[in-house]
Amino acid sequence: MKALLIGEYRQGKLLDTTYELKAFADRLGADSVMLLVGSEAELPKYDGRLYLADAGAYGEYNPDLHKQLVLQAVEKEKPDCVVFVHSSYGWDLAPRVAVALKAGQVSEIVALNEGAYEVNACNAKLRRTVTPRSGRCVLTIQAGAFSPSGEPQGTPQLERLELSGAPSGIDFVGYEAAEQKGVDLSKAEVIVSAGRGVGKKDNVPVIAALADALGGELGASRPVVDAGWVDHSHQVGTTGQTVSPKLYVACGISGAIQHLAGMKKADFIVAINKDKDAPIGEIADVLVVADVMQFVPAFTARCAR
Amino acid sequence: MKILVCIKQVPDMESRFRPNGEKTWYDESDLAFRMNEYDEYAVEQAVQLKEQLGGEPEITVLSIGPERTVEAIKKALAMGGDRAVHIRDDRHYQKDPWQIASMIASYAKGEGFDLIFTGMQSQDRGSAQVGVIVAELLGLSCATTLVGFSYDGGTITVKRELEGGIKGVAKLKLPALVTCQLGLNTPRYPTLPNIMKAKKKEIASLTPAELSGEAELTATAAIYPPAKKGGGLVLEGEIGVQVDRLMGILKEKTAVLR
Ligand SMILES: Cc1cc2nc3c(=O)[nH]c(=O)nc-3n(C[C@H](O)[C@H](O)[C@H](O)COP(=O)(O)OP(=O)(O)OC[C@H]3O[C@@H](n4cnc5c(N)ncnc54)[C@H](O)[C@@H]3O)c2cc1C
Q1: A37 and A113 in contact (C-beta within 8 Å)?
Q2: CB of A129 within 8 A of CB of A113?
Q3: What is the rounded CA–CA span in Å between residue A86 and residue A67?
């Protein structure tokens, strides 16, 4: 088994998730080679062959060109699988490569299961094992699901990749930084977060009152922010803030992977959800099965006493 | 301008799910279905573009699924779609993203769409593949995970959401396909007059046999509820008792309450 691992590089930096690809290949028991559209100044520690294409020449986000580079490496190496992280880079690029190779793609693998790949369905309420039916396959792995066991080591043997005049329909303009204003949740000791289960904007102050009573800050899940109930600076998750409070109270939050990614390092997690099967129950220390709008005011009153 | 919006009907994610008899997908009985959340943003963006261009573009809504799928299609028409294509397929759930995308591309091939909108993923399967595969099969420029969209004179400018709140800005010339992320816009609720108007709009019906069929490239070996790690305490019952017990636990286990 041989895996071609596609590393990630953004804004001049190698992304750490690149190391999860190697950890995944090791778990598969596969030999690996890596490809990176990046820079020689930011090489991963990697004990193997690394195809390097210059991000200066091919852009940090130009999937049409990056696809051609991946296909070149596939041509040279004839791997059994091409592996990406399921990230904004990977989920954009992987299907393009899969179509070009007419290979089956398995997205967002969370575990291995006797030769099949495990993925979540229905917001992690179900799991599927998926098997590719094509000789070669394309895989994307869930960020965080395959952590490297030790410190990454090694010096890659470089091989340069170049393209000649491949056309692209995409013109990358640049990056826009995240907004810096608002609350810094990263230092909060207590965070009480409002999710969609809170129901409407008018109910948010009820959650904020509990945050106050516990001497903490108000957090929120994405739909609450998208709906304009709470400012973006309160959002917890992959596209919000990563937090590690002593206590995290999730009110009406289902526990989607992108939300968990931002808060699972909390020391103690309390979830209030009317659905006993909500995936948040998997990581909560205490799951209170109740309607948030009944439970939270009662609990706030008790804290204030 | 001709616009295509691809939508899917999915169950309410707050439902209880259990595997179907064949153990290939979830059992549909007792589930309430609605339009895939990501697709609502796709429909809304198409309708906003039509409004921006003075109503000129024609918006076709396409969905693959069984009879019930018509409900999601009608909602998209009531939001502002002009006409719809329903690919009636009772076995849709057995098809992998490659097969689904191939059906869509097979329909779209001769139609000359300038712009195709899809959601970035479905809430039930979550493969995030279908839109991109359609673009590749049709040879269209493609950008995924849009949280910003603007159109001007044949070029679209998109904002892609990246990790950590950063956005990537890119320009694409039409024809193109984009996949939409949560928060791209605020999807409208269909008004009663628009729901009435939508009843008169054409919903063409196709069968998979009329489109090019492809063999699957991946297969579901099994579907099952994830093993419960357990460990966490579940508090059920009367609110007053729950409040007391949580208070006790927090006092004992955390330094937050004294
Ligand atoms: C690329 C990408 C990035 C993302 N980034 C983020 C991110 O940074 N942060 C984030 O949060 N999400 C993010 N998401 C979205 C994420 O996938 C989920 O859609 C989101 O976290 C769901 O928010 P929620 O739990 O509040 O809502 P839902 O999933 O709708 O859950 C609502 C919950 O409330 C419960 N509920 C309903 N009514 C009540 C009631 N009366 N009392 C008690 N409980 C009730 C329900 O049982 C349900 O479990 C991202 C998604 C993608 C694709």
Answers
A1: no
A2: yes
A3: 16
Task: Identify the three-state secondary structure at position B212.
Answer: coil
Residues A256 and A157 in one domain: no
Domain hosting A190: range is: 185-304
Is the complex ipTM higher than 0.90?
A: yes
Return left, alpha or beta for B153; rule: phi > 0 is left, psi -120 to 50 is alpha, else beta: left
In whole angstroms, give the CA distance from residue B139 to residue A167: 12
Question: Shortest CA distance to A42 belongs to which of A6, A18, A9?
Answer: A9
Partner B, chain A 142-171, Cβ-Cβ below 8 Å: 169-171
Domain membership flag for residue A13: yes
Residue A64: give its domain's CATH number: 3.40.50.620
Among A161, A196, A228, identify where a domain stops: A161
In 3D space, the residue among B34, B37, B40, B38 whose CA is nearest the CA of residue B10 turns out to be B34
- Taking CB atoms and a 6 Å cutoff, what residues make up the pocket around ligand 1? A 195-197, 199, 221-223, 235-240, 252-254, 256, 258-259, 262, 272-275, 278, 291-293; B 13-14, 182
Task: Tell me if chain B has a CB within 8 Å of the CB of A240.
Answer: yes
Give domain status of residue A93, yes or no. yes
Task: Domain count for chain A, please give it.
Answer: 2
B 187-246 residues with CB < 8 A to A: 215-226, 228-229, 232-236, 239-240, 242-244, 246
Amino acid present at B32:
A
pTM: 0.96
pLDDT in tens, B33-79: 999 999 999 999 999 999 999 999 999 999 999 999 999 999 999 99
Structure tokens at B110: 């001769």
One domain, residues A139 and A205: no
